[in-house]
Amino acid sequence: MATLSYSAIMSLDGYVEDVNGDFDFAVPDEEMHRMANEQARQAAAFLFGRRMYEVMEEPWTAAARRDDLPEIEADFARAYVDTPRIVFSDTLDTVPEGVRLVRGRDAVAEVTRLKAETEGVLDLGGAGLAASLVDLVDDYRLYVKPVVLGGGKPFLPTPRPVRLRLVGQREVGDGLFCHFRRDE
Q1: What is the Cβ-side half-sphere exposure of residue 64, based on CA atoms within 13 angstroms?
Q2: Is position 139 within any domain?
Q3: Are 95 and 87 in contact (CB under 8 A)?
Q4: Quick check: is 95 in a domain?
C-alpha cells in the first residue's frame, strides 16, 4: 500500500503563495533542491491539483529537453519526466502524453484506489487538492522558509484540525524541513 505524502515550501506563517498568488519566496536553495530531487526520484507518482500542475509541467518538461541547465535542475527535470503524473481537474480538457487527467470530483475515490494498488510514495502537490484529500494524507513534509508573508494561500486550507506527530526535522539551507505523520 502506498503512502500519500503532501509536501510544499511554505512561509514561516504558513502560506504557500502570497496574497497576489506568487511564490517567489519559495525558490529552493541548493541544499533544499537536493532534498526535493531525492524526494522526486523516490515518488511512485506525482498527484497535482490543476494550478500546481500548470506551475510544474511546462517548465520541467521543457527543462528536461535542455542540455544547458545546472546539474541540480537537470537532475530534478529528469526525475520529474520519468515519474507518472496525475492531475486532478474539472477545468482541463486535455493533458500531454505522460500525464493522466482525473476529474477533481473523483479525487477521493481515485486516490483511495491508487493507495491500495501502488507501492511506494504518492507525492501530492497543491494546497487545494491536499485539503480535499486530508483524510487520506499519511505524511506532511514542510520546507519552511524564513519569511513572513502576512497572508495568501495557506499550506493546508482544511476546515478542521488534523492531529500529527513530528517524526523528523532539520535545518536545510536557509530554512527548516519538518516531517510529520498522521497521529492515528
Answers
A1: 13
A2: yes
A3: yes
A4: yes
Q: What angle do CA 42, 48, 53 make, to 5 degrees?
A: 110
Instruction: Tell me which residue range forms the domain holding 63.
Output: 3-150
Cβ neighbours for 125, distance < 8 A, ≥ 6 positions apart: 6, 7, 8, 46, 47, 48, 49, 52, 56
pLDDT tens sequence for the chain (184 residues): 999 999 999 999 999 999 999 989 999 889 999 999 999 999 999 999 999 999 998 989 999 999 999 999 999 999 999 999 999 999 999 999 889 999 878 899 999 999 999 999 999 999 999 999 999 999 999 999 999 999 999 998 877 888 999 999 999 989 999 999 998 7
Q: What is the grid cell recorded at 153? A: 494561500
Residue 94 lies in a domain: yes
Domain count, the chain: 1
Q: What is the CATH number of the domain that holds 115?
A: 3.40.430.10
- Is residue 161 one of the residues assigned to a domain? no
**C-alpha–C-alpha distance, residues 152 and 174, integer Å:** 21
Q: Is the pTM of this model over 0.85?
A: yes
Q: Which residue has the cell 494546497?
A: 127
